[in-house]
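--- STAGE predict ---
source: upstream dedup step, 1 unique chain passed
mode: sequence only
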Amino acid sequence: MHSVLLGVVAATIILPLNAQADQGTHVTRTWFADTNCTSLVINQYNEARDKRAARTLTITDGQFVRSLVSRIEQLPTEGDKLISFAPTVRRVELVFTCGEGARTLELYQHRIKTPATSFFSQSSELETRLDDDIEALLAPALGTIIPKVKGLELRFDGFSVTFTGVSSSPPAPVTVSTCSDEFLIDTEGKPQQRLRITSGQRPPAPQTFMVGASTRTLLTYETKSKHRLHPHAFQITK
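--- STAGE serialize ---
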């Protein structure tokens, strides 16, 4: 979760919307003209003025992309502040491929720029969680709650994890159906490991794997502090 003091360091100009000299004709704005988005490229720029991204992720998991679109569309299309950020602040660019076109959104200092080119003076839980998920994909770390994105390799210190999808089995006459999350673990100097965490009548149990001489635990149901992960996220701990 990120806290930003707007107007102290990150921004050079902050104006309430009612301070605009000319409001003009009201224009109906939307986050997406076409919500049938199939892929997403996330570009992280250490400074807003940078032309080259410091980190780029390409996501082709259409189900995850559309769920992200749905979450963004729940935000108001107009914020209550006009903010001119300094060129040295951090910027994240979200480039969605939707239908036959592309839609680009931007976050400055963890705050999303609305279709009206304004910002929210107070970050809502929805905006904060959206930013947390993007940050977890850009910089995955032990103890971080990470959304499941099929086919996206996430690099940690000494190993990487790729969520490869969900498999399910139909119920037999005397059993219940089961659902399995599948992950690939690549550890330096070791053969690739495949982990399967299965849930059914009981919550899925954590799985462990080794990174050198250290044990890592993969959680898909809930964190150790009982924060719910299932079915959209996972966490890796020491």
